[in-house]
Amino acid sequence: MPELPEVNTFQRYFDGTSLKQKIQEVVVHDDKIIQDISGMEFAEKLQGATFLSSYRQGKYLFGELDNTHNVLLHFGMTGDIKYYEDELDKPKHERFAFIFENGSRLGFDCPRKFAKIRYLEDRNAYLERIKLGTDALRISTKEFLEKAKGKKASIKGFLLNQKILAGVGNLYADEVLYQLRIHPASKVNKLSKKHLTNIITRTQEILQKAIDRTAYYKDYPDDWFWQWRKEGAIAPDGKSKIETDKIGGRTTYFFPKYQKLYV
DNA sequence: TGTGATGTTGAATG
DNA sequence: GCATTCAACATCAC
Fold first, then answer.
1. Which terminus of chain A has fewer CB atoms gathered within 10 Å of its CB, N or C?
2. Quick check: A114 CB within 7 A of strand C?
3. Domain hosting residue A155, numbered range
4. Cβ of residue A251 near strand C, that is under 7 Å?
5. Are residues A111 and A17 in the same domain?
6. Contact, A207 vs A6, CB < 8 A?
7. A59 is catalytic
């Protein structure tokens, strides 16, 4: 699920449900995804605290507490949050939940347990330490071009690198390169300044449109790539067949006849 | 039944 | 030292 538009949608949901209510208790069913401290310590730190606001950078969502500390929610591949009152609505793979004073809960669901939850006293120090890149929606063309300079990596791998820009994942990277007819294995240093400018501009347009549609794929424009992004697909021109390859470490879908390779 | 998945990390490699 | 690649993590669905 969660790339930048999905996490942005989670953020709105979090803001709309979980701010400004005191956390009465935290229940932890499985503390595998809680980093550095035990589930019990996590619960103790949060008991009695209140989320006042949130901050998102790329796929990283931070709940900002009234004591200036932060809770980092990173959703991994299968993380999700759900606010509910009735126990019957508890998500199937809930790993922990905040219980608020009004009795409602914010449950964190995660079947695959690749999510990472952290209690952070100093958010900026953490971001500095992991060298998380500028948010993909906020990066300037200038900074993007600067970071691209001399890079020999594939454009796909470059876009996926969260230290370069934060927020683009496997699906949206394929989407951008399809829309611009650029082969994902093209080398960054073989792409023109014009290409690179188009890439960052189109990336931002796509992410923004996805956000406007609350990351709900069925509402995306008809000509977007995601619906062809599967084995056996035939391009809209009715001729070229889809191909998959491992590029930038991830399974990549593209139309080799339609997307030009620059190497 | 085996395979791969909307992600990240640290170790290995060049 | 730097840039880049790859296996590993845990579970589920096709």
1. C
2. yes
3. 134-254
4. no
5. yes
6. no
7. yes
Is residue A167 within 8 A of residue A136, CB to CB? The reply is yes
In a domain, A20, yes or no: yes
Measure the CA–CA gap between A8 and A166, rounded to whole angstroms: 13
User: Is A2 known to be catalytic?
Assistant: yes
- For the whole model, what pTM was predicted? 0.95
User: pLDDT band at residue A21, thresholds of 50, 70 and 90?
Assistant: very high
Same domain, A91 and A208: no
Same-domain status, A117 and A150: no
Instruction: Say whether A121 is catalytic.
Output: no
Task: Tell me the residue ranges of DSSP E strands in A86-144.
Answer: 94-100, 105-109, 116-120, 134-135
**In this structure, are residues A34 and A117 in contact, taking their beta carbons and an 8 Å threshold?**
yes
pLDDT digits (tens, 9 = 90+) for A144-200: 999 999 899 999 999 999 999 999 999 999 999 999 999 999 999 999 999 999 999
> What would the pLDDT profile of A203-252 be if each residue is shown by its tens digit?
999 999 999 999 888 899 999 998 888 878 888 888 788 999 999 989 99
Q: Is A260 a domain residue?
A: no
User: By three-state DSSP, how is residue A250 classified?
Assistant: strand
